[in-house]
Amino acid sequence: MKQKLVGFLALFASTGTLLCCALPVLLVSLGMAAVVVSAVSVFPWLVPLSQHKEWLFLGAGLLIGLNFWLVYRSRSPVVCDVETGASACETAGRWSRIVLWLSAGIFVAGISMAYLALPIVRALGR
User: Fold this and answer.
1) For residues 10 and 2, what is the distance between their CA atoms, to the nearest angstrom?
2) CA-to-CA separations, 32 to 24, 59, 102, 124, in angstroms, rounded
3) pLDDT (tens digit, 9 = 90+) per residue, 37-52?
4) Residue 31 CA: distances (Å) to CA of 22, 28, 34, 103, 123
5) What's the half-sphere exposure (Cβ side, CA atoms, 13 Å) at 71?
6) In the 8-state DSSP scheme, what is residue 78?
7) Which of 4, 23, 42, 40 is nearest to 106 (CA)?
8) Residue 1 in 3-state DSSP?
C-alpha cells in the first residue's frame, strides 16, 4: 500500500512540474504565448504553482527517488494472491515500472524546461 501511495504521489508531482514549467515554456518557444495566457486565465492555480517551482521540483524529485528505491532497491517480498497467479503480479510490476519511468521523464522534461530552456528564451527576448 505504501509503494502504491508513493508511486501515485510521484506521478502527481511530476505532472505538476510538467504543467508549471515544461508546457508553458514549450508553447512560448513555439510562438504560442496566447495559449499560455488562456491556460492561466482558465487555470489560475498555475501561477502560484510556477512561483514555487523550487519546492515543487524538490518534492517531486524526492518522491520519484523514493519510488525508484521502493521499486528497484527494496528487498521486501512481493505478496501475490495465490488465485490470481504470478502473471498478475508480473503485469502489475511491469506497469508500475512503466509509470515510474514516465514520471521520471516528465520530471526531467519539466526541470530542463524550467532551468535550461526558460533562461535561454528570456535571454533571447531581451
Assistant:
1) 12
2) 9, 29, 25, 16
3) 888 888 888 788 778 8
4) 14, 5, 8, 27, 15
5) 22
6) P
7) 23
8) coil
Long-range contacts (CB closer than 8 Å, 24 or more residues apart) made by 41-46: 46/19, 46/20
pLDDT in tens, 5-28: 766 676 666 676 666 766 777 777
- Reduced to 3 states (helix: H, G, I; strand: E, B; else coil), residue 74 is coil
Question: How far is 52 from 58, CA to CA, in rounded Å?
Answer: 10
User: Can you tell me the distance from the alpha carbon of 19 to that of 21, in angstroms, rounded to the nearest whole number?
Assistant: 6
Place of cell 510490476: 93
Question: What are 118's three cell numbers?
Answer: 526558460
Helices 86-112 + 53-68 axis angle, to 10: 150
Alpha helices in 18-85 (DSSP H): 23-29, 33-42, 46-51, 53-68
Q: Report the alpha-carbon distance of residue 42 to residue 45 in Å, rounded.
A: 9
For cell 512561483, the residue is 51
